[in-house]
Design a protein that fits this description.
Length: 295
Amino acid sequence: MIIKILVGLLIALILFLLFRPKKIKSGFDVPEVFPEKWKLYLLKEVNFYASLDEEDKAIFEGDVQRFLRRVRITGIKTSVDDEDRLLVASSAVIPVFAFPEWEYSSLHEVLLYPDLFTEKYDFSEQDRNISGMVGSGGVMHHVVLFSKPALHQGFDNASDKMNVGIHEFVHLFDKQDGEIDGIPHLIMKNQAVLPWLHLISENTKEMLAGKSDINIYGATNKQEFLAVTSEYFFERPKLFKEKHPELYKVFSQVFKTDLANSQLGDNKLKRSIGRNDPCPCGSGKKFKDCCMGHD
């Protein structure tokens, strides 16, 4: 009897070792120490990062490193450089910054396309109009796709309330409870589903009547409403709070952050660094004598 139990335990152990989930690695050699040129790039291009204090900047950097170690970023007929990787990772980190150790468990790879694409992932057809998409079905189940120019445009223009990177990662955030349905897990957990659906309904009516400054694409369905308004929340928090206080209150609870009252405020333009300003790398030198123009 004891021998049978031991054999059973041994078989169970062997099966566990063979079929246990394996830790996914991206294949990209992420530096152990966050490079100064990466810090400088984030400071210039990512308002959310630039608004953080030094302690939170370090946390953001760690989140970016962890994402890049786990998620592969692949270019489809386009190159992928560090700047592309940093914008993808920043897009992923921003919505979940208030959630320590968050991982997009269903995501294995991000594909960057050289242009807009179709629902069939084709970027050669004339009627292509998609800038970002969460893949579904088969080999695309664990993939997110972006038009590389659109990804960069989302960070280049900080006043248009649009950022395709944030948009698609909010879809993945929404997927935490098993499906992308426009009802985040925290809303379900707090049993605030009906008030949330009412807010969506009322705002959608205003959008369709041309009485709202929320991107009309958000009226497509609940999923897109959540993603579009999340872009607005993270890009223009003060304006969002002024124009849509009820929505702002919900989003502050869902994302656990009060952006309108933070240092981020309502940055319409990216932070600029003067030639004679202290270099953000912390060297003590002037920007022009240190990192300015460095690759």
